[in-house]
Amino acid sequence: MGSGKTEFSARVWRDSQVLLKKNATVVSHTSSGHADRRKVFFVRTFLDEQRFPDYPSDALAYRSGYERLGPNLARIRNSFELEQLIEDHPEAGTWIIDEASFYEERLVYVVRQASEKLGLCFIFPTLVLNFRSDIFNPTARLLLEHATDVFPLTAYCEHPDCVEDAFYTYRWYQVKGKECPAPFFDPLIIIGGDRASDDPSQPNYCTRCDQHHHLPGKEYTYLTLMALGEAWVRGDSGRLERELTALRDEPNESLLAQSLEGSLEVCRNTLLVPFLAERALVYLAHERNLLDEAALHSLVGRLNLDRPFLARRLADNGKVLQNSLT
Predict the structure, then answer these.
(1) Neighbours of 93 (CB within 10 A)
(2) pTM for this predicted structure
């Protein structure tokens, strides 16, 4: 997000290379057992595999450059693979876990045990807040609870008329040349979006201050969308189907549109974002667990929703279906 968290990691790496050239007398100050904190290992999530196609595979890339880490960089899927990495590299005393909030909560306790038993140092350059300005997920909350030190980084607000400090991640789509904020119920994780995109189905990200961080549809999500999902569970399917149909065909006639009356024009632009019905369905099925797999398939079939889009977004968020949508 331009706050410098990956560049901070690169600085730790550069400092470590300087310290490794020091005389052996410093080892007693930097080591715990077999692990030497001057030896840094950088861990990326496998979700980032396609994030930096223009850089070498061993590059720690950031906005103003990159560092080559050689064998001291790996990609993992979960905390079990992190455990294996630590076992395979007992000499590494400093571990930088990029985007740690993307992993399951177990990672926090794996890290805590390794820190206490092996004397390892862990650094987490990660977003604590998601695009909704909420704690990213339970993993992020646990990281904050167990962290020894927290260094909040800020960036400049990327709105063209503003130079205030920015704390928030802003997700938006470009549709017909317009800035269209992501609705509150947009899927939490969307893989990609690291480059500016004029594809209306792919998000753009930037940092924004309070004034320019727009998040339309929050009230609608809690007051209306979730209520419609709960009504479906009780057997009243008609109201949810009508709203999803409106979001698919005539967003300006939807209850979402009604909730945005009187809002800033840029907030009303969210009605131009494609696949609103599909996004709402992912939210209800994945984040709120109001729709089981059978209900999901039923609604997708009856409303003729976009199956490839739904399959991608559910996969991005780790939702595994027994029966494929595609």
Answers:
(1) 23
(2) 0.82
